[in-house]
């Protein structure tokens, strides 16, 4: 369509989100000194817009406002305009989201904030429509009013921004109070269980009516609660809540039945109509949760869903160099000739389209039955579409169907007089045909940014699934991604992690001119991944790197006065607050995961000061854990691991021996939240033996692979049978 009319500074950035805005008529700046200096020099308000490349409402606001020449002129005249990719700069996002949530009672993206030239916020919100409407003021009006206020009441705005910042500084501080100790684990665990139980949807699973999010942190908590209360009614309920939720999600439209993987969340109570973007962090965490569901239940259904997720990530979110991409968009062009994108266009189906693709008669079924009949019955397809208009305010899905497995295979087979095995083969053939047809549609935008933290979550997904499902290929893929991180997102000179890298035009891996340094979450999720990868592969090099990164994390982020870790390094004058995350949401907050990391690190190294640090984090969050543990289910889970003490399961044996492999398979097949696994292979020069001298005293009994259960480096009597080992592992 010819050369773009406008090009701004964002054209020089690597972030896919910033590049999406490089041809807006708005004179955008990236976050940085050039923009700050201009605001001070010209005494202008900064307009800060924060979003991410697969954010639906970010696209809407760009189309309506940022592509408007008239609104662009207002923005350029009165403001210095800055664009931030929240996935690149979670530190900037968190500071200003804290302000927006505190002053408006809500938050989300796109986030729109107005700052003084010294970066203090004084007004903010999320999405604004371009013009005034019945219920809300338009973006143009807001811009003009703020410009007028800055001209006429500058001193009042400056004073207000100063007071707001001081209030935020006080309310957002998390620190240990006096001599506080870690909260009592049993009470905190029980309260969290009761709070989740009260919010649980008995019919459809999940922990709200709508919208419904996957929240793996809740499910992991319930699995741990079950493991510690297996013989009680509460333990049974915890397990039922988790498995029912996972089953309903897997049957629902939030699960992509044709292209695999999970969409971001469901807009309704039934897990039916999703918000269609797919995020890497969801796939990584859900692969872990479905693998654990399989370990606990033995039900192959859960293992198949885990494999489905990993197939999607391997095929669609994998860089050829080994890293993982961040996300796929919700919006795409319905056809190659369409002029505007629609949400879900890549994933939804009209009934006549399905009939045309699946016309074959089905042998052995009731007369006249076609593949289309069977498929449409099983997946809830309706001739006029199966999307409730209430879930489709813009009528983008009118007449379309979001596939949802509404019948059990048994019911569908009975309906058409088919054998179960035959039905399974038929549905598989149908899905394959639809996948081929869907491949002809224009694909949604792919965010090819690669983030250390999210790659860490995905490595854990592959490593834990590989161990639980005994799939060596998944462990290999995890190792490939970890090697990618060490090559492209680690600076061996400084010993630090980097936040992000990018796919270049020729499929090379590129880095920004000024690389973004890793944040706390990058260290925490990568360290967790390396521990998971060691347990799955027993390659000691991953342990060594994990312990190095843990030392670096302590140095860069630890708060020696108030305890726990800050989210970002000290020393960046553009960040007004140094915060500690206090909520486990779509991803667990870094301090929650790091408690278990520290306990694992102590088990692998003998550095008991890491156990002390874990206790200090729990002490710093003690008040929140005791009042609303449902806000921190992952940290609540870690209180149990802290109080019960991690057990070191040591297998002494030849890594290639069948007896050793049997014992390792046994350990990996059992869900036991308070264990770490290590292999004592007899090589006294190896990293583990140097870290843990007690390993040298452990021997094979009668020349066989032998297991020891150790606590604080004191070990039980040896066992040589898998049956004895299984009994030893039960909590």
What does this structure look like?
- The protein has 731 residues and is an alpha+beta fold.
- The protein has four domains: 10-172, Glutaredoxin; 185-198 and 213-314 and 447-569 and 578-644, Glycosyltransferase (Alpha/alpha barrel), CATH 1.50.10.20; 347-441, no CATH class; 648-729.
- The strands form seven sheets. Strands 1-3-2-4-5 form a five-stranded mixed beta sheet, with helices on both faces.
- Helix 17 (452-468) runs parallel beside helix 19, helix 19 crosses helix 21 and helix 25 packs parallel to helix 27 (722-729).
- The mean pLDDT is 95.
- It comes from Formicarius rufipectus.
- This is SPT20 protein.
Distance linking N and C termini:
64 Å
Please mark out the parts with pLDDT under 50 across 5 or more consecutive residues, or reply none: none
What is the number of domains? 4
Q: Fraction of residues in helices?
A: 40-55%
Number of helices: 27
Placed side by side, the strands forming the largest sheet appear as 1-3-2-4-5
Question: What are its keywords?
Answer:
48% helix; Glycosyltransferase; Ssp411; 731 residues; 5-stranded mixed β-sheet; Thioredoxin-like_sf; 4 domains; 27 helices; 4-stranded mixed β-sheet; alpha+beta; Glutaredoxin; 10% strand
């Amino acid at each position: 369509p010819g050369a773009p009319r406008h090009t701004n500074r964002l054209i020089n950035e690597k972030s896919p989100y910033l590049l999406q805005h490089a041809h807006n008529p708005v004179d955008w700046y990236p976050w940085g000194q050039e923009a700050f200096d201009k605001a001070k020099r010209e005494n202008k308000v900064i307009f800060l817009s924060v979003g991410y490349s697969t954010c639906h409402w970010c696209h809407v606001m760009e189309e309506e406002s940022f592509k408007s020449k008239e609104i662009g002129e207002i923005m350029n005249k009165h403001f210095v305009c800055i664009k931030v990719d929240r996935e690149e700069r979670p530190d900037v996002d968190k500071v200003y989201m804290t302000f927006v949530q505190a002053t408006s009672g809500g938050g989300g993206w796109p986030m729109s904030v107005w700052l003084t030239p010294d970066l203090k916020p004084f007004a903010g919100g999320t999405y604004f429509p371009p013009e005034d409407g019945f219920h809300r003021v338009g973006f143009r009006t807001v811009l003009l009013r703020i410009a007028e206020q800055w001209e006429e009441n500058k001193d009042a705005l400056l004073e207000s921004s100063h007071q707001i910042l001081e209030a935020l500084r006080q309310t957002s501080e998390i620190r240990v109070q006096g001599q506080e100790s870690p909260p009592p684990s049993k009470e905190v665990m029980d309260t969290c269980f009761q709070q989740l139980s009260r919010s649980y949807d008995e019919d459809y699973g999940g922990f709200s009516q709508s919208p419904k999010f996957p929240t793996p942190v809740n499910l992991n908590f319930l699995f741990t609660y079950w493991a510690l209360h297996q013989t009680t009614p509460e333990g049974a309920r915890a397990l039922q809540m988790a498995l029912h939720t996972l089953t309903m999600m897997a049957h629902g439209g939030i699960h992509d039945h044709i292209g695999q993987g999970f969409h971001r969340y469901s807009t309704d109570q039934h897990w039916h109509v999703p918000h269609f973007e797919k995020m890497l962090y969801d796939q990584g965490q859900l692969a872990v949760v479905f693998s654990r569901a399989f370990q606990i239940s033995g039900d192959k259904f859960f293992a198949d869903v885990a494999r489905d997720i990993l197939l999607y990530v391997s095929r669609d979110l994998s860089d050829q160099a080994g890293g993982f991409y961040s996300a796929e968009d919700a919006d795409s062009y319905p056809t190659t000739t369409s002029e505007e994108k629609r949400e879900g266009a890549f994933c939804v189906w009209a009934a006549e389209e399905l009939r045309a693709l699946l016309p074959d008669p089905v042998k052995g079924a009731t007369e006249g039955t076609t593949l289309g009949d069977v498929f449409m019955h099983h997946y809830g397809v309706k001739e006029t579409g199966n999307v409730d208009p209430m879930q489709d305010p813009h009528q983008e899905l009118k007449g379309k169907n979001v596939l949802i497995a509404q019948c059990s295979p048994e019911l569908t087979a009975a309906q058409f007089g088919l054998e179960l095995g035959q039905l399974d083969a038929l549905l598989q053939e149908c899905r394959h045909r639809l996948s081929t047809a869907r491949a002809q549609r224009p694909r949604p935008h792919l965010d090819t940014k690669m983030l250390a933290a999210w790659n860490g979550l995905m490595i854990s997904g592959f490593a834990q699934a590989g161990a639980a499902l005994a799939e060596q290929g998944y462990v290999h893929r995890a190792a490939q991604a970890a090697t990618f991180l060490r090559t492209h997102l680690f600076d061996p000179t400084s010993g630090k992690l980097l936040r992000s890298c990018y796919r270049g035009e020729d499929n090379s891996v590129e880095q920004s001119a000024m690389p973004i340094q890793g944040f706390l979450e990058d260290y925490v999720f990568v360290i967790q991944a390396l521990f998971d990868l060691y347990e799955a592969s027993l390659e000691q090099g991953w342990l060594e790197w994990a312990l190095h990164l843990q030392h670096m994390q302590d140095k860069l982020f630890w708060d020696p006065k108030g305890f726990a870790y800050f989210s970002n390094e000290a020393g960046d004058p553009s960040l007004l607050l140094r915060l500690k995350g206090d909520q486990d949401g779509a991803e667990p907050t870094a301090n929650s995961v790091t408690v278990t990391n520290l306990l694992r690190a102590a088990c692998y190294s003998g550095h008991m000061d890491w156990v002390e640090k874990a206790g200090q984090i729990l002490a710093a969050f003690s008040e929140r854990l005791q009042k609303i543990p449902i806000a921190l289910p992952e940290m609540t889970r870690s209180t149990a691991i802290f109080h019960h003490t991690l057990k070191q399961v040591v297998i002494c044996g030849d890594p290639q021996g069948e007896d050793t492999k049997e014992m390792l398979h046994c350990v990996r097949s059992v869900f036991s939240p308070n264990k770490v696994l290590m292999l004592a292979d007899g090589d006294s020069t190896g990293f583990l033996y140097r870290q843990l001298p007690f390993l040298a005293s452990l021997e094979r009994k009668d020349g066989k692979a032998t297991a020891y259960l150790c606590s604080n480096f004191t070990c039980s009597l040896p066992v040589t049978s898998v049956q004895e080992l299984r009994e030893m592992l039960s909590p």
